[in-house]
Design brief:
By secondary structure, the protein is mostly helical. It has 11 helices and no strands. The protein has a domain at 33-188: MetI-like fold (Orthogonal Bundle), CATH 1.10.3720.10. It has helices at residues 2-18, 22-55, 61-70, 76-87, 102-126, 130-138, 143-153, 155-170, 174-180, 190-199, 203-232. The model has no long low-confidence stretch (mean pLDDT 85).
């Protein structure tokens, strides 16, 4: 039974891809667009936060690091519930009409990915020898130059942080379902489509969508790996 579903799903995936099935391409586009946008925003906010926590010494720093590491396992449904309580009608952000929209999904995914980018970014920066940064400051390098140099030295770790954040989001379902509503042609992505098809008993279609989702995740990580490889090439 399991093998027949897997084989059937594989062939169904090929058929759906090469016949240009609108449902599949729409769901794939929504998944990529929302996840990539949320990853970019979360990285733009989280990596500087991780950098600041790594290089600065302040009261409560240990608590902040522990909190970021704890939030790595933040359940998606908790994030969805938290955002839902603030954007539903009659609440503070209700007039923005975000609920069941791509914007709400992006907000939820940013909250989910930001601790990942911050915690792993902090780890990447902390793994560097602090003497190099201190020496650069002593020799008169500007703070901006020191930040750029440090980020370049830790680029592989920072790219890994971005990859981890993106990997968490591309397969996320709780936030997408609760805040997006799984609306066809609007907020339905691959994960919510898989949940819908499974509930309908369309296991082959669900398996096909799952294979496509896995291919997308592998493709994004392969692209990141290629970027890392180019960074290793001599100038």
């Amino acid at each position: 039974m399991g093998e027949s579903i897997l084989i059937g799903g594989f062939w169904r995936a090929l058929i759906l891809i090469f016949t240009g099935d609108v449902r599949v391409y729409e769901a794939a586009f929504v998944s990529l667009w929302i996840s990539c946008t949320a990853t970019a925003i979360a990285s733009a906010l989280g990596l500087p936060l991780g950098f600041a926590v790594a290089v600065r010494r302040f009261r409560g720093r240990g608590f902040v690091i522990t909190l970021l590491n704890t939030l790595l396992a933040l359940p998606t449904v908790i994030v969805g519930l938290f955002v839902y309580t603030f954007i539903r009608r009659g609440t503070l952000f209700g007039p923005l009409d975000l609920l069941f929209s791509p914007g709400a999904m992006i907000v939820g995914q940013v909250i989910l990915a930001l601790p990942i980018a911050a915690a792993l970014g902090q780890t990447a920066i902390s793994s560097l020898d602090p003497a190099a940064r201190e020496t650069a400051l002593t020799l008169g390098a500007s703070p901006g130059r020191v930040i750029l140099t440090t980020a370049w030295e830790a680029r592989y770790g920072l790219l890994a942080a971005v990859a981890a954040a993106g990997g968490r989001l591309i397969g996320e379902v709780g936030v997408s379902m609760m805040l997006g509503g799984n609306i066809a042609h609007h907020t339905r992505n691959l994960t919510t489509a898989i949940a819908l098809e499974t509930s309908k008993g369309e296991f082959a279609v669900a398996m096909a969508l799952g294979i496509i989702l896995l291919v997308l995740a592998l493709g994004l990580n392969f692209l990141l790996r290629r970027l890392q490889g180019r960074g290793e090439e001599p100038a």
